[in-house]
């Protein structure tokens, strides 16, 4: 798996280049955008929400939808993200969007059922590649949103993201030797329940990415939340059972150097209050400039931490039997 994750930067570039080069229909004036993701691409929609929400010039709605809200009509561009293109619920939603007159763009395999439904506006970001993480889909989606004018020019942001991913890969390569922050974090979190807190936007999305990677690859419990939302309830939950939680819970806090003063202040106050109930606290910041690069810089660290946790526990990070079993059981029930 380390060999496959080391290809993330190349996959990101390939996907973004493919999206920029793809032939899309003339969409005219765009009033609203819906970004829909299937069950395997929810992390993509979450990352996009954290990265582009502040930059979008029209309303953008994000969902892992199994049904289409009534407000989605012929004024919408619907971007559907489905790696395999075989999710029946999302394919049905795509048909509904087309029936309502919406323009639908699919990021999926060109040989998939979804591609057949959508027709011409299909962007195949794989084309024989085998990515292990969500980076190609995120990069391709950003490029598409740039092309259709929903966000500003994004080539520089994608280039910075690729540089961040590539630098982290070189830093965390298991055969590189030297200081390896991801391995150090993994050793600290080993045999602990990981709690990942992000701040605003990109770091909040990166926290969800960390959680997902630890769950899926290390087969370990992990949970995520973000400031300022967690100040409304979760921070109060550390008032009891501290003798238990300090033995088993490790906190990782993700943020960027440009976070707002109010969020930074809130993070420091909350950390001081709950630190004694935690087994460890780890602070990780990114100095990347663009929100897209900030997300990729932080999430790449999480990917390597998850792989090192799996290696320490001698767990195979590849198969996710629990998820496969649940999906199989649900399909049998239908």
Short key terms for the protein model shown above:
334 residues; alpha/beta; Rossmann fold; 2 domains; 4-stranded parallel sheet; 13 helices; 9 strands; 48% helix
* Largest sheet composition: 5 strands, parallel
**What is the end-to-end distance?**
34 Å
Instruction: Give average pLDDT, whole number.
Output: 90
Count of folded domains: 2
Q: What CATH architecture of the largest domain would you give?
A: 3-Layer(aba) Sandwich
What is the beta-strand fraction? 5-15%
Described by the principal axes of the CA atoms, the overall outline is globular
The CATH topology of the largest domain corresponds to: Rossmann fold
Low-confidence residue ranges:
none
Question: Over the alpha carbons, how many angstroms does the gyration radius reach?
Answer: 20 Å
Q: SSE order in H/E notation?
A: HHEHEEHEHEHHHEHEHEHEHH
Structural class assignment: alpha/beta
Kindly describe this structure.
The protein is of the alpha/beta class and 334 residues long. The protein folds into two domains: 2-153, Rossmann fold (3-Layer(aba) Sandwich), CATH 3.40.50.10490; 179-313, Glucose-6-phosphate isomerase like protein, domain 1 (Rossmann fold, 3-Layer(aba) Sandwich). It is 48% helix and 15% strand. It has helices spanning 2-5, 8-21, 42-52, 88-99, 113-118, 135-147, 155-172, 181-189, 202-217, 242-248, 261-274, 291-313, 321-333, and strands at residues 32-37, 60-63, 76-81, 103-107, 122-123, 193-198, 222-226, 249-256, 280-286. The strands form two sheets. It has a five-stranded parallel beta sheet, with helices on both faces. Strands 7-6-8-9 form a four-stranded parallel beta sheet. Helix 2 packs parallel to helix 6 and helix 9 (202-217) runs parallel beside helix 12 (291-313). The longest helix is centred in the C-terminal third of the chain and has 23 residues, at 291-313. The model has no long low-confidence stretch (mean pLDDT 90).
